[in-house]
# Entry
Amino acid sequence: MFRRPGGIEIKTDQQLALMREAGLVVADALAACAAACVAGATTRDLDAVAARVLTDHGAESSFLGYHGYPAVLCVSVNDEVVHGIPGDRVLRDGDLVSIDFGASVAGWHGDAAVSVAVGPVADDVAELSRTARRALWAGLAAAVADARLTDVGAAVERTVIDAGRGHGILRDYVGHGIGSRMHMEPAVANFGPPGRGPRLKPGMAIAVEPMVTLGSPDVVVHEDEWTVSTVDRSYAAHWEHTVAITPDGPWVLTSPDGGAAELAALGVASPA
# Structure
């Protein structure tokens, strides 16, 4: 492992393999949490599900204790965008629940998020989540060797704009580099022009995470100093994956198939 100018970490193949192990733990936990995301469950129940997955895999939480964060999951409901602390809140039909989870194996991290509908949700809410997910995969597909960093955010933004729904894209919170720490250089915006910033090189890894709203992209932080909500109380969706840059295409470390199927549908090769 070494760092290029600008502080971007370059991983060895062995280090990326450990990140893949962590990524598969993340995938398992998010799948288990999504299945448990039903009316009557509490957000704390979801945290317990994720904690059991960590124990079963012998992995460590990337979130618990991070700057004092008190849980292994972030669970954000409806107008809460990110960093919601699990607690006694009871989920109800019609809720949109964003679940964010990170795990580490031998000190190497994976980080991903999904948005899950509880029962039937309003049509515009369902479309919001679909748009955010499409934007995520567009960003991942742009994470190819020798592309520029801002090509990723430009692909995310273009997808949201092309949806034609007037959705907001958060600017105060963005994606990030990841590897031997959960949050590293570079910052990965979900907006902006393409063709700028450092070139993406094999061995880099980034977390791409569109945060998209039904209304204003402006947000406020709650008194708990963690939970972030939209100022206009509009619903939000959050989707995320960790992707490694390889000579053979993007390798989505937190997707069970490495992203192969979704990337192939977008015409992008993957080493998975």
Q: What stands out?
A: The chain has a mean pLDDT of 96. Residues 8-265 form a domain with the Creatine Amidinohydrolase fold (CATH 3.90.230.10). The longest strand covers residues 96-105. Residues 98 and 115 are 4 Å apart (CA to CA).
